[in-house]
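Good day; I would like, with your permission, to put a structural problem before you. What I wish to show you is a protein chain and, alongside it, a tokenised description of its three-dimensional fold. Here, with my thanks, is the record as I have it:
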Amino acid sequence: MRKPLLLVSFYAMLSASAFGQSVPFDMSPERPANPPAARPVPVQPAPQPVPQAPSMPQIPAAPPTVSQPAMVPSAQQPAPARPSPVPVAPAPSPPSYPQGAPSQPQTQAQPTQAPPLPVQTSVDPRRRYILPFSELSLSGEIDQRQWTIYLTEQQAQAAQAVTIAYQNAVVVAPESSSLEIAINNVPLEKKSIASPDAEGSVLIPIPPGTLQAGANVVTLGVKQRHRTDCTVESTYDLWTDINPAGTFITLNADVANRFETIEDIQAIGAGSEGLTSIDIVAPGLANPVMAESLLKLSQALALRTQMPNQQIAFHTTVPKERKAGSLIVLAGTSREIAAVASSVPPEVLAGPYAGFESNIVSNLSALIVGGPTPQALQTAIDSLVASAERPAGSVRSFLSTRNWHTPDAPLVVGNRRLVLSSLGVKSAEFSGRRFRTDFTIGIPADFYAAAYGEATLLLDAAYASDVLPGSHIDVYVNGNIASTVPISNRGGGIFRHLPIKVTLRHFVPGANTVAIEAVIQTQADSDCLPGTTASGTPRFALFDTSEFHMPNFARIGRAPDLAANRGVIQPYHASQQPVAVYMERIDPDVMSSAATLLGRMSLAAGQPLAIDLVSSIAAVGDRDAVFIGTLAQIPPALAAQFNIALASQTSWGEGGRATPPVEQTDQLFENWRERVDGGVWQGQISSFEEWIRRNFDISRETLRFLPGAEQVYTPPGNVSFMLAQGLSPGGEGVWTLATAPAIDTLRSGVKSMTELKRWSGLSGRIATFDPAADKVETIVAQQQTFFDTGPATFSNWRLIAANWLSSNTLSYALVFIGFLSVLGWVTFILLRLLGRKP
């Protein structure tokens, strides 16, 4: 009897052990004592109605700890990990989501679903970089930069201090030189400039309440004095370089990369290299139907960030590395998002959705743009694009420059007077030898007054009695000297609206920087006694009541002219039809190149460009268009349309370096003349020609009667990227070509060319980039087509004629001589007919 009982007990123990091991062995970390109740809870007896969020299936096979508790109320969580599918919209589209998903959690029913890739992030969540420049050098005795940064509410509250990394010239005297920073007009603690041997850094506390959610104005400047020298020339040896990678705001919480609303996109800022990256993860990128919508999305995001240096990249999977100043965007249908994310927001399953979600991609705030169907995804993209557009009929009055130069540059389209105080210039007293300040104004793309006309600076200033004659006030436009006013009186003086004529020659479409520089000399500088290199007595004062007067100027569009791209993208922004966009192929590299270029163009236009993605060049017709691709892959007829040598389609970039082209004789001679400028001229070249050029700025180009023919251009081997502009075959549309010898150089070339410091120098019909020399070279257009950009008026046509004749001196002389001849003949005839006869 005892033996059967033992056998029964043994079999019972085996059964219990087998039951306990029905769950597979798990080597994952131990679960918490109280796991989320959403997964193991039995099926509820009364299911919720269809529209309720709990009925939405959790698509990916995520661990129980990732269940979107903030998105779905815990009281309504469904019991199974993978419930049976329930319609989430009144009429779901079958292709957008697999039907008949299994209800058993252990069944793998979605082959497209994959666990999220780990992100190797180099982002310090407690650092908010603040410099929007790749490099920043503050030079002279006084210099400063002012720009705007955007912060979320959490970032503004968590800010503790600002760190500035810098290195200065060895001649800077630390006892009388200081590094100064102000935030929202609140001066922070000054620091001595004393790091000549190696890069140093200073930590400056930020008082509570200084920063605010939204826009914050940062002013960073230096006051520098020379150690031993008192001359004006010595002031050019003073410099302090600021390192963007070591200049940031320190936060007391991990919120540097946390975003919650669409408005927080502008708080992305720049990274440690002054670059803003927008990474759009689109698993359905291979589908050409969505390419146009994705390019529109990239424009909307570029306009949201408003940063001067942007790079837009497309991916099919989440990038493995993320840097500061980057935005990750997941764009696709709910099924596509499920393949790259750890979970899908319920809003994406219910309808069109665009918003930030945390912990969707490796604990990062990612912008989700999607919906259950392709149509819903398109609606979500359209909503973002519409939010970036200007209201219909609105007139643009500013160019957006505040993220790199505050305030925004007013767009001057005609006769206008601007007080310098409204341009960010403040009244200042100066005790040094070279004072400098600047302001920015915007010029429209159809500006046509570079050969005639003058603006006027009405200067309010004063200088001390010890200032010597020989001192002077200079005005610079975009780094070129435009006017000089000497100070010839002794005993000091006050200027009250002193008119200083400023030539319009150096103004260009887009943002223009006008600088006022005062060179002040005294007898104390000549003596330069020990301890007098830094004087505390003001010598010069500039008042912010000064004004800048821009007169009416000629306005007419011209093509080809790449300078219009840095203005307001003439004529693309005002095109009656969508701009045709042709890409060599649809892949991440070409799409990234197109998105970066169109993003920069939309920034210049101030709104998204209406585009039409075409699959063939024949579909472009005679309308405005943009072409992106390698030169070898574009049709020869298209290359000929831009006057590019057909042989360069095979030779450019061959063997890593193309054969250098044979330069045109005139261009080669001009290059050598610049090299030996000031040397001895021999042979049959007349010295009179050089004298005319030097004293009257008249060259052979200005003495031409009519423009010459365009020369066929062959890109040299040192060039890795080219931006060209031409006309359509019918002459009705303006075509722009972005090309390179290879796909990788196309992508890197677009990125480099669209950076602010290079984009602002575009002009002519061709602009090339040499990465080794970091140089942009332009080819001037010999023949341009003019087109109206506004109503035709006699006043405007008179100004157009004045500029054209000033650019073509020989034509002006012949017209003048012809007019005098006609006048003489008419006078002669009238005297013969009406005069007294003997």
Summary: The CA atoms of residues 829 and 835 lie 9 Å apart. The first strand starts at residue 120 and ends at 121.
